[in-house]
Amino acid sequence: xxxxxxxxxxxxxxxxxxxxxxxxxxxxxxxxxxxxxxxxxxxxxxxxxxxxxxxxxxxxxxxxxxxxxxxxxxxxxxxxxxxxxxxxxxxxxxxxxxxxxxxxxxxxxxxxxxxxxxxxxxxxxxxxxxxxxxxxxxxxxxxxxxxxxxxxxxxxxxxxxxxxxxxxxxxxxxxxxxxxxxxxxxxxxxxxxxxxxxxxxxxxxxxxxxxxxxxxxxxxxxxxxxxxxxxxxxxxxxxxxxxxxxxxxxxxxxxxxxxxxxxxxxxxxxxxxxxxxxxxxxxxxxxxxxxxxxxxxxxxxxxxxxxxxxxxxxxxxxxxxxxxxxxxxxxxxxxxxxxxxxxxxxxxxxxxxxxxxxxxxxxxxxxxxxxxxxxxxxxxxxxxxxxxxxxxxxxxxxxxxxxxxxxxxxxxxxxxxxxxxxxxxxxxxxxxxxxxxxx
Length: 439
Ligand code: CMC
Prior knowledge:
Blueprint: E1 5-12, E2 21-26, E3 34-35, H1 40-44, E4 64-67, E5 72-75, E6 78-79, H2 80-86, H3 89-98, H4 104-115, H5 124-128, H6 137-147, H7 161-187, H8 200-209, H9 220-233, H10 240-249, H11 255-266, H12 274-287, H13 294-302, H14 323-338, H15 345-359, H16 361-365, H17 373-383, H18 390-411
Antiparallel strand pairs: 1-2, 2-3, 4-5, 5-6
The protein binds carboxymethyl coenzyme *A.
Carboxymethyl coenzyme *A binds next to loops.
């Protein structure tokens, strides 16, 4: 770790006479200081207890920074608002992977390399055919991304920086192909091979929507919107799926297996599955009366016994408007206008619901604001992405963040296998009773 301990020390004292112990304190470049408690168990025989990592930094990182109170998101120091407007997704990938934005020559080379890795081994087609047509795309993605490790043996040595780079490129390049294949398979259409004359996002849209029977022309507004969705989802520091990738990678597992683990974690409705859940929620309110029923729905959300949540609202880190949500709302507007859907009932409903929630004491006191998923479903639906594929799109975009974080971890000389401790509250040691003595 390049960070040095500050002059300040943290002292932990006990009320039972155990002598106080001192710990070093580190200052990051921005953000809260951290107390280095690695020697705690050795010094005291005690662990800390922090389920959900509410106050625990599990690693040091120089990739992404979130200021949840300000609603600020930086990739390698650059605000997301500037990247979303001035850069495309592959430039953002280069930045996340390498730490700096590419110059023109570096960008050309990177784009060329990614473009020339977009095909997947032809054998993957047969692998896909084993799935039911109605399989959830995330089930298909977990399996097919994990299966990549069975196809690309030549880039699996995690201690070789060149292998790691090749695997990173392969994953970024092949995820759009696999996501599009998962979609094509689900609708019974032939797989569409990638085309090297198209941009990353245009190529993805073509693989999704082209059919062999006719020409397919990409729409610039939709391609730009897709690219922005990718940029906004590219990384988000130590969230659940990224931490899953790091934890999987800490054992020395190969990158394809680690990213498959990240995809599995992302699938959950509290994480990447929230975009699908948010759109289903809006559709249901719309079916049951629309804007007029917002009050009733919000009442249900506030009732802790109802089990109903306002999906697309709230975040562990953001206690202010998620900056990605603002950009996503802007993109939703652009896409709906371009498609002549100014009166889209779900968009109107979402804006009305947002307004009610932002003025409601329940949401205000808990600092619950829209997150990236609140609007992303509406824009993806308008583009023609089926709801079940939303989280797959998130996985596609987040792959670069996962792989950048995985690479950072492997390159860190202080890296150790991740092994949390526990507060054990079960039975103490006891003897196995014979069968006839058991209750
Ligand atoms: N609707 C209603 N109440 C909520 C919501 C919500 N969406 N989110 C949080 N709360 C309440 C929660 O019940 C709790 O209330 P109380 O203090 O009375 O018990 C309080 O707000 C704090 O919530 P928490 O669950 O302790 O917060 P957390 O940091 O553990 O959870 C979260 C964060 C994102 C899982 C949660 O806000 C949530 O489930 N939101 C809906 C799902 C969602 O939109 N997820 C996408 C996250 S952004 C994309 C991503 O990174 O994957």
